[in-house]
């Protein structure tokens, strides 16, 4: 078993764990100039409209001056897919790749194989499923996120989407812009959130923040997760634990998806599972699009079995013009946006800077930020 | 001073108060068959889509069988404006007029003068500004609302609108339906609600429910009202009292209007007051459209001084096709809908039935439901 050159504490941790069959790559503290590539969405004319707009190609997370003044090379692009894309030009010699879930650089096993100098994959935000984590682990790479940087942003957005669906907001707004006025056409399927049963699949950081925000709405709150919450926290939040997912789901008027995309969760909302949900169920999914069977969701929206679907995640991203979710009825979709508010950008930009600083110094990252470390995947991705 | 024939307790109340220069009209407990007219929005094809859809003309608040079995006449219409409208045909001999804020029957002094048998004006919902309250008081009419029937509905809707504006939801949704994908075009003006300053003008029933629902969002909460809350409640809600409205307003990132339309509040958001708000302020108004100077709001949205405006109230209603708020940028408007969810309809239908029962028996209404009683306006309308 080859040991990587890491900071002291990490060496101890590895020595104690006795783990890993990973290849030799220098993870931390290798001296000298690094080549860092950032893949972000492009802002174009929007860049100059807000001085805090750092999350785009032009903003480059506000890191350029700092990185270059230390002798590092910093390439930023939005050109991430297809033959001869800008990203592929830098794959052979980059040391660090920073990407975001909003404009994901798909880091395949093939790219990892070609990236001989690659040491660190940083997700500016949360959710590293755009990386082939198994291949990254086998290659001895470190994958890390800025955990916590946008959990509040996403939880707020989920609550907004619940209300938009329950209260049937969009048909009303559509009437306004088309010059109509037909209260009945909205009201016949508009409800209060109060008294409804809301279940979250996953009660990690985001799920908990959502439940806390839901509490004053006097709903019946349920959650499913690998682990039951601490009883004190559960009482404070006022949500009931459901050990079995498929027992919980048919009870829900509103289902919120709050778990990562893994091989276990991919496509888990298929035709069969959807058919067992309450007729007229509302679904909010800001987690990952591929947790859903795309066509099964579109069909259930057409039939009315799903009465409303809202989220900001799609597969693939950007969503093509002919993605069925653009055309299905009762959708309240947006592009992938909930975790990239200006507030979130400032937080994950600061988080990336902190992680790079630690990387240059050969220091450990905050433990909750690791997704792949020394050949091991974080528990939520196993 | 002429005294009305009222239930015993009411007689005592009036005798004790020594008030009123009102005309003689039988308010309660006059025996025999009554003519009751309800003005609601029409549902047409939507009526059969939901068995609980009682708030429309066709649903007639679910009261027809009950009223007719007791020998009362019950006319229901949506035809409320213009010469020879259905409502005007019944004005001369109706005893009770039930109306809603969603499709308001404008009860002018002229109509009151013609309505020789009119005793009771009931608002199925909250907000009786569609009635000339001064004329109603002078004519000795009783005006009452179903206070509380839809306060939760409206508060939920306000929180939804705050999030829609702060998080810049609509441009993202618009991209989805037009086949676009441009995260930057949304993100450059999308924010978290957390940490922002939210001020409500009015902290009555709806304002308090909104503040309670805002609490877990970790905002800076302010409220202006005639009265400071009980210190215990204020602490529980976590909002700070602002005695002077014009001191509070420039502090707010988000302003929510939660007060009735009165002669004092009509047009209070004029060009001058808007110019003193924070540049980029967001405004949510589910109270009444006429509290705003329509053109001043549209101009400030055009200039960007107001960065977003959302509400479901307009003047007049239905809003004409050329209403400027349909065309101004960054609006998240709907027709008047927030208080007429299916849940709210069931509550205000039950409330109207209860009030009519009391009226037939000559009993008092719950005190908080009176808007005009024995020539006096409720405090919020003075």
What's the helix and strand layout?
Two copies of one chain form a homodimer.
Chain A: H1 8-17, E1 35-39, H2 64-69, E2 73-77, H3 86-90, E3 96-99, H4 109-114, E4 120-123, H5 133-138, E5 142-145, H6 151-166, H7 169-178, H8 183-187, E6 197-201, H9 205-214, E7 220-224, H10 231-237, E8 239-241, H11 245-248, E9 254-257, H12 271-275, E10 281-285, H13 294-303, E11 306-311, H14 342-361, E12 370-373, E13 376-377
Parallel strand pairs in A: 1-2, 1-3, 3-4, 4-5, 6-7, 6-9, 7-8, 9-10, 10-11
Antiparallel strand pairs in A: 5-12, 12-13
- State the helix count of chain A: 14
Estimate what percentage of residues of chain A fall within beta strands. 5-15%
Largest sheet of chain A: 7 strands, mixed
Number of strands of chain A: 13
Quick check: average pLDDT of chain A? 92
Large-scale geometry of chain A: globular
In angstroms, what separates the terminal alpha carbons of chain A?
22 Å
Give the spatial strand order of the biggest sheet of chain A.
2-1-3-4-5-12-13
Q: Runs of chain A with pLDDT <50, length 5+?
A: 1-29
Chain pair sharing the greatest interface: A-B, 72 and 72 residues
Radius of gyration of chain A, whole Å = 22 Å
| String of helices and strands of chain A | HEHEHEHEHEHHHEHEHEHEHEHEHEE
Oligomeric state of shown chains: homodimer
Going by helix content, strand content and strand pairing, the class of chain A is alpha/beta
Helix content of chain A: 25-40%
């Amino acid at each position: 078993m080859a040991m990587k050159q890491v900071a002291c504490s990490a060496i101890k941790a590895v020595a104690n764990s006795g783990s890993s069959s990973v290849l030799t790559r220098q993870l931390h503290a290798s001296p000298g100039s690094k080549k860092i590539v950032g893949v972000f969405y492009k802002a174009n004319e929007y860049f100059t409209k807000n001085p805090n707009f750092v999350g785009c190609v032009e903003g480059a997370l506000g890191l350029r001056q700092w990185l270059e003044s230390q002798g590092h090379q910093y390439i930023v692009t939005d050109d991430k897919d297809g033959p001869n894309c800008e990203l592929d030009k830098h794959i052979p010699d980059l040391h660090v790749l920073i990407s975001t879930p909003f404009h994901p650089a798909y880091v395949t096993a093939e790219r990892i194989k070609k990236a001989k100098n690659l040491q660190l994959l940083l997700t500016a935000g949360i959710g590293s499923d755009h990386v082939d984590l198994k291949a990254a682990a086998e290659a001895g790479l470190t994958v890390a996120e800025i955990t916590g940087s946008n959990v509040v942003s996403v939880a707020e957005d989920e609550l907004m989407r619940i209300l938009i669906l329950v209260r049937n907001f969009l048909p009303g707004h559509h009437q306004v812009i088309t010059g109509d006025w037909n209260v009945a056409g909205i009201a016949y399927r508009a409800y209060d959130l109060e008294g409804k049963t809301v279940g979250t699949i996953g009660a990690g950081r985001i799920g908990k923040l959502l439940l806390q925000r839901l509490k004053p709405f006097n709903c019946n709150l349920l959650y499913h997760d690998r682990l039951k919450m601490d009883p004190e926290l559960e009482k404070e939040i006022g949500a009931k634990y459901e050990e079995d997912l498929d027992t919980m789901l048919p009870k829900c008027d509103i289902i919120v998806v709050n778990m990562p995309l893994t091989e276990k969760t991919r496509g888990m909302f298929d035709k069969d599972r959807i058919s067992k949900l309450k007729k007229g169920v509302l679904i909010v999914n800001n987690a990952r699009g591929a947790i859903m069977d795309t066509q099964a969701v579109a069909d259930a929206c057409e039939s009315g079995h799903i009465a409303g679907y809202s989220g900001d995640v799609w597969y693939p991203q950007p969503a093509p013009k002919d993605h069925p979710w653009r055309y299905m009825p009762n959708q309240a979709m947006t592009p992938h946006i909930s975790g990239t508010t200006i507030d979130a950008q400032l937080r994950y930009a600061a988080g990336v800077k902190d992680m790079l600083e630690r990387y240059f110094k050969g220091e450990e990252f905050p433990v909750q930020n690791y997704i792949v470390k020394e050949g091991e995947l974080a528990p939520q991705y196993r």
